[in-house]
Amino acid sequence: MIVVGAGILGASVAYHAARAGAGVTLVDAGQPGGGVTADSFAWIGASGVRRGPAAALRYTATAEYRRLEAEVPGLPVTWSGSLSWRRDGGAPDAGPGQTIVDAATAARLEPALQEPPEWAVWAPDDGAVDSVRVTERLAGAARTHGARVHPDTPVTAIRRDREGRIAGVETPAGLLPGTTVVLAAGVATAALGAQLGVHVPVEASPSPLFRFCAPAGLVRTVVNTEDFDLRQVAADRLIAAADSRECTLAAVRSTFRGAESVELLSTRIGPRPMPVDGEPIIGPVAEVPGLYVAVTHAAVTLAAAVGRLVARELVEGTVESALAGCRLDRF
């Protein structure tokens, strides 16, 4: 099996497949976790999931990361919970795994809030990860289970044999042979599939990520408002997913006491892979025996679950019901 793309999703597939006993080669044009994975806000949340083709996957996200923590010791996951609110007043709806809390509870969860919201949604099981380090650990764990990892090795073409089955991938160093190819290359998946006449409807969606210097302990949970997704990633660092750096900085300073010293350190805009209907595209490609696609904009959140399920389908030959709504043939 050749997994093309060593972002967090590809690394998870490679790890789970190698752990299940498959011969795996993980190949990437850069370093593991060095692409759009590094630009993710990396919020891990299963709460509030109600509907959609990937609802079953999303609902298991936190439990799957708990399992992965046990399998790969030292995985950098922080279980802080998440707190969400809006300025429109009335009490919000709570989904599965969520609780409506009042201003006093919100202030206890986030002591630096200048004006705690009247109502907020608390998801105690939510968390976040260091997406690059998780990817590196997964690639390393895959290698421990016998996988070969080829960084800085772009795939230039996918090869088929005379019967039309997958035969491997071409790289500048030559052919890497394999009977199964998993395309987990983010936005590059579309171009690689097109070489085989396979249309994968995924486009690049700009994903801004802002890093700030900040006082220690300013933010305790994953905070979600109209203005930003915000969390503390180190004693003196915040990251935020939002649209405008100026508006985000102003919102952070006005939302938290003691935030006057918060300053912008950097801005990254990653080309997040976005399927045209917003839902994951995961599964075999019937027209090309041996080809399998795995691409989604929620790769960090779903990596643990998707990696395990894809490995089961490819190594054990199962058909996973949780992936039924994610197949390419829905388009």
Automatic annotation (TrEMBL):
The source's domain of life comes to: Bacteria
Report the GO terms under cellular component: cytoplasm
- Name listed for the protein in its UniProt record: Glycine/D-amino acid oxidase
Name the Pfam families for this protein.
DAO (PF01266)
Show the InterPro entries listed in the entry: FAD-dep_OxRdtase, FAD/NAD-bd_sf
Q: Which GO terms describe its molecular function?
A: oxidoreductase activity
Q: Which UniProt keywords apply?
A: Oxidoreductase
Q: Which residues form the FAD dependent oxidoreductase domain?
A: 2-312
SUPFAM superfamilies in the record, alphabetically?
A: FAD/NAD(P)-binding domain (SSF51905)
